[in-house]
Amino acid sequence: MDLFKKENSNQELLPPLAERVRPTTLEDFIGQEHIAGEDKILSKALKSGNIFSMILWGPPGSGKTTLAKIIAKNIKAKLYEISAVSSGVNEIRKIIENAKYNRSHGFRTILFIDEIHRFNKAQQDALLHAVEEGKIILIGATTENPSFEVIPPLISRCRVLKLNPLSIENLEKIFYNAISKDIILSKYKIDISKENLKFLLINSTGDARKLLNIIETVYFLINPGGSKSFEITKELIVEALQQRKTLYDKKGDYHYDTISAFIKSIRGSDPDAAIYWLAVMLEGGEDVLFIARRLIILASEDIGNADPNALNVAVSGYNAVHFIGMPEAAIVLAQVTTYLASAPKSNASYLAINRAIEDVKKSDMPNVPLHLRNAPTNLMKSLGYGINYKYPHDYGGHFVKENYFPENTEPKNYYQPSEEGYEKFIKERLLKLWPDRSTKNEKK
Length: 444
Description:
22 helices, 9 strands, about 450 residues, alpha/beta
């Protein structure tokens, strides 16, 4: 009995299962074959030793932290890990100073920043010179689109690697790897039916950390003690999932699952479901400004010009939440949430910019036609800047037909308004001004 108590005590000192079974080599890493597989960008970089600064963009539990640690170990670099939630410029500067010392002793320095999207502009600016001069190799991890959350100068100094949610096959390999190799679980014969395994993997939603947390929670629920085996049943999986949900972790998987359900409920025009998920987040102590920021993004991405006032409501809501804080901020968030959920929806603006960016990436940066250039000086006027520009307010209806695309560029209908809300009026007006809009080279 004393030996059993001692074993339990030792187990409590061990790190969580997800940390215990974390792979240490790229060969043992499961998933993300498009960047970590043989002859792919990361494996080639590790073999050559030419590691570059990068932004790892992907959902929770997809392997961002693991890849950073594998890279650091393989190139024998000093690894510094910080979270953008709790770190600031002073800590960054200290690490950069340490990097100078490391370099003088023949070591490279990797700075891994979790949730880099939470750094403000000044904090991101503090990294620029060190990254550009090669003093540090920056590996930033983010669940948010870096195009919106990371400053362009920093993105230009890094490569953005997109990680995907793990597949069911990936998760199955991780499951069997954990129960066969973990220092604790490998001591037991663990049974699970094919049906229950499928249920477990589906409910892990592509997140390895979530999967391993469920397994560990099931182990603690069973508390097998001196037994040589135990079974993972559907009832235990369900109970483990419920226990995970009651322990709302503002940095963990349930945080991301819940904000996803919240956003999708608003996008789906269900104010009641949206309010429910808002309540879950507020009761869990979620950062109210994080919620408010996501509402601003949604107002443009999913509502857009179907209700142009949606963005004003969302931005005003953010400012109000910032001014008053909790608990009254909950009232503001509820108003913004119900307004956005009830508003007509359109993602036409979101699709338009994506279409245009796709075309711009395929070609060289275009020259701006002379008639569209500004001419504030006599020299610019002499060079033909602004020549033959037609000022729309000088024409009837404050409109004149003109080509605003670069020369030798075929005009395209990037923006295709929907029939929803105010966007229906926009569509009708554009067709009146540009009768050939519907027959232009539309890009689906």
